[in-house]
Specification:
two-stranded antiparallel ribbon; alpha/beta; 10 strands; 383 residues
């Protein structure tokens, strides 16, 4: 099936700039990402991929998902137009205000396109998914490069028009997005991320399922360090089963590419292009429209995994595959333990139905099995 994708981009996204300070979340990320988009666009027939300028919007729209006091505080800081650290990971600069205005406008444009059945990709920055209701989310040590949550904003607005699922496959847990929707029963949040006991932000355990009416609509799928294609392929089958039960009208994706092999030297994973192609292709068949928001990815992930994801979204039949990677037995034991807990948590709250072949996995879980949460201070996003 031929599908089209509108990429929302503007050079103002590069105005959020650490200057002479060495920082992984820098403007060069978009140079790499945009080149990848253009490479795919040039290789796809029928203009399936088009790049459109992201309009300028008002920061007021972020009050839909953030505390008003927090938004006003950030706006006040931005008016100084100077470089400043908000925490040990997260900065603002002279041009951050313009970048965020474009992020607001791109979010609104993405909603308009989705309501017309058109999928889009917000190729912007700063990233979003660690920004919670009032900035730092769920006790995280920092905001992890994020200021306002465009992923949550798009999902919140689209939820007024139908059922929404948020999928986050960035290597880190999307604690900000999860916090914003933690008690919201109308928005499903599925998050695939590395073991929180050993990585920032230290949140996103299987039993973190939401609260109140939202309990059972938040799903955390935990992967171990050095997880390969085999583990991520298994996780993807669980994601698809959950989506088949939820039947979303719209899917919003926190698209992070830092689980790609070699992208992030501090969180070592071994995922290749086939996973990103496959999840893109699968998601595009599960909803009227898919809105993707760029999250992590700092080098090879933007060079190769982003291309594969767009190829999957647009329905290309083939793509240059990386050699398939296999996970160690130790990695599989860790993953299986977490997977059983995740499935047991889903079944407990009965908001999502699972096929019997998946549900019976939880039966292998002993009644006293529990993951020990390590009391560890994550001083930096990348450490």
């Amino acid at each position: 099936m031929v599908r089209r994708l509108t990429v929302l981009y503007h050079s103002d996204f590069k105005e959020h700039d650490p200057g002479q300070v060495k920082h992984p979340e820098a403007p060069r990320r978009l140079d790499i990402a945009l080149k990848s988009v253009m490479d795919v666009a040039s290789s796809t027939p029928g203009n399936r991929v088009s790049v459109v300028g992201a309009p300028r919007g008002s920061l007021e729209v972020f009050k839909r998902v953030h505390d008003i006091v927090y938004v006003e505080r950030v706006k006040l800081i931005l008016r100084t137009r100077r470089f400043e650290w908000l925490d040990r990971d997260t900065y603002v600069s002279r041009g951050t205000l313009e970048s965020l205005r474009r992020l607001a406008g791109a979010s609104q444009k993405a909603v308009t396109l989705a309501l017309r059945g058109v999928s889009s990709f917000i190729l912007g920055r700063p990233p979003s998914h660690h920004a919670g209701v009032s900035g730092r989310a769920m006790g995280a040590p920092s905001m992890g490069f994020c200021l306002f949550n465009a992923t949550a904003l798009v999902a919140r607005v689209l939820s007024d028009h139908g059922r929404v699922a948020v999928i986050d496959f960035d290597v880190h847990h999307g604690n900000g997005t999860q916090e914003i929707f933690y008690s919201n029963p109308g928005i499903l949040h599925i998050d695939i991320h590395v073991d929180p006991s050993v990585s920032y932000p230290g949140t996103g355990y299987p039993e973190d399922v939401g609260e109140g009416e939202g309990a059972g609509t938040k799903v955390n799928i935990v992967t171990p360090h050095m997880a390969g294609d085999d583990i991520y392929r298994n996780a993807l089958r669980l994601v698809e089963a959950i989506l088949d039960s939820w039947k979303p009208d719209y899917i919003v994706v926190s698209a992070g590419f830092d689980a790609y092999r070699g992208d992030n030297e501090m969180v070592l994973m071994n995922v290749g292009t086939r996973f990103y192609y496959t999840i893109g292709r699968m998601l595009s068949t599960k909803a009227k429209a898919v809105v993707s928001v760029l999250e992590g990815g700092y080098g090879s992930g933007l060079e190769r995994a982003l291309k594969a994801y767009i190829a999957g979204i647009t329905g290309l039949k083939d793509w240059p595959w990386d050699p398939t990677s296999q996970s160690s037995n130790t990695a599989w034991r860790t993953y299986r333990m977490y997977r059983r807990l995740t499935i047991a948590s889903i079944l407990k709250h009965r908001k999502i139905s699972l096929p019997k072949r998946i549900a019976r996995i939880a039966k292998a879980l002993g009644p006293r099995v529990k993951v020990k949460r390590r009391k560890r201070r994550f001083r930096r996003y990348i450490f």
